[in-house]
Amino acid sequence: MLQPLSKRFRYHFTGSRQTNTLSKPEWYLTQVLMWMGNHSAFMELKIQPILDRAGIKINARVELFRGLLSLALEKLSSDTRRLLFDDALFCHLVDEVLQFERELRGTQAYPPALPGALHVLLEHTVFQKWLTVERKLALEKVDALLTAEGAWSSQYRDIADVDELKVPDCAETFMTLLLVITDRYRLLPCPRSQLSFLALQRELVDDFRIRLTQVMKEESRNPLGQRYCAVLNAAHYTSTVLADWADNVFFLQLQQAAVAEGEEVLGQLGIAEAGRLASLEGSVFDGLLGLLERLRGDMLARLLDAIMRDIRDKAQPYCRDRWLSLPSQLDQATMSLSSSACPMMLCFRDHLLQLQQLLCLPLFQSCWQGLAERLDLFIYQEVRGKRKGREGKER
To answer: Which of 131, 362, 145 lies closest to 239 in space, CA to CA?
Structure first.
C-alpha cells in the first residue's frame, strides 16, 4: 500500500521536477499529511479488522503513517543540510517542520512515543544553526521594536480598563517574542535541547534589561518624564511576567531538568542554587528577577529624589515661618494649613497626580508610600528641627 505513494512522492519531490524546490518544504509536508488524512479511515475500518482476525498485533494506521513519515524525514534530512548557509530558507524550513509536527501529533493523532519530524532538527549541526539564527533574528527584532515610533507608549493608553499596567509597546512586544520562542521549542522531545533555548531566552531578557538601563541613564536628567516612567513600567512588567512563568508547569519541568543535566547549558550551578531549584524554592529566572528588581528600585529612588528636591524648594517659605509669631491653636475655631505650606502641599499633590497617570498601579502605590515616608521625615526632622533650633536661639 505504501509503494505507490512512495513512488508518487519521489516522482514529485526529487530530481528536476518543479515541485522539488528548497523554498517550498510545505509542498511535500502538506502532501504527506493529506495522504495520512485520506487513508486513515480506510486503514482503521478495512485493514485493521483483517490484521486483528489474523492475530497480528499491529496498528495499521500507525504503520502507514510511519512509512509516509519516513519519506518526509528522508527529504527533510537532505534539504536541511543544503540550507545551512541560507538563513531565510532555513528559518522557513524550521517553521514548516514545527507546523508539520503540530498537525502530526494533533490532527493525525500520531503516538507521542514514536519519533516525529523534530529529530531532524536536533542533529547537532542543524540544532546549533537553529539556535544561532533564532538568536540573530530575536536581537534584530529587539533592535527594531526599541527604535520604532511609539515604542515607549502603550497601545491601550486610551482604554482605562485595559491599560492598568501601562506597558509600553516595546516591552509587550518583547515578552510576546519570548512567548513565541517558548511555543516553538516546547515541542522538542529532548530536555537538553529545551534547556538550550531556555538559556537563549535568559540571554535575551538580560540583553533587554541592559537596554532598559541604557535608556534609563539617558533619561535620568528628567526622571519625571514620560519616557523614564515608561522604562520603569517596562522593567516592572518584564519582572511580573517572568515571576508568573516561574510557576508555570512547563518551566518547573525545565527547572528539574536543569538540576539534573543543565549545568553546561545554563551555566555552573552552585550547590546552594542547585538545592533551591531542586526543592522548587527558587526558579530558573531568579537571577534575572533580582537584576530587574535592582533596576526597578534604583529608578524608583531617582524618581522620589527628584520629587523631594522639588518639594524642598516649594517648602522654603514654610521653613522660614516663625512659629512663635503664629496665632495659638486655642484661638482658632478650626485647624487650617499654614498659607506658607500651601505651595509645598500643592507640589506634593501635583506630583502624585502625575505619577498616577504615568505609572502602573503597583509602582504608583510604591511611589506614594515612599514619598509619604520621605515627606514625613522631611517635615518632622528637617523643618521641625530647624525651627526649634532657630526659635530656641531667639528665646
So the answer is: 362
CB of 266 within 8 A of CB of 258? yes
Distance CA 153, CA 172 (A): 11
Answer positive or negative: Cα dihedral of 311, 316, 320, 322. negative
Burial of 266 (0-12, 13-18, 19+ CB in 10 A): buried
**Which DSSP letter does residue 156 get?**
T
Cα of first residue to Cα of last residue in the chain, in angstroms, is 112
Cα 342 to its chain centre, rounded Å, is: 45
CA within 13 Å, CB half, 24: 12
Residues 148-157: pLDDT tens digits? 998 999 877 7
CA proximity to 247, closest of 275, 209, 286, 290:
286
CA gap 33, 68 in Å, rounded: 9
Residue 105 burial (CB < 10 Å; 0-12/13-18/19+)? middle
Instruction: With residue 345 as reference, give the H or E element that holds it.
Output: helix 342-358
Nearest to 66 by CA among 27, 98, 7, 113: 113
DSSP conformational letter for 137: H
Which band of pLDDT confidence, cut at 50, 70 and 90, is reported for residue 257?
confident
Q: Number of helices (H) and strands (E) in the chain: give both, helices first.
A: 17, 0
> Residue 34 carries which DSSP code?
H
Interval 39-98: pLDDT, tens: 999 999 999 999 999 989 999 999 999 999 999 999 999 999 999 999 999 999 999 999
Q: Which amino acid is residue 379, in one-letter code?
A: I
DSSP 141-153: HHHHHHHSTTTTS
Q: What is the pTM of this model?
A: 0.86
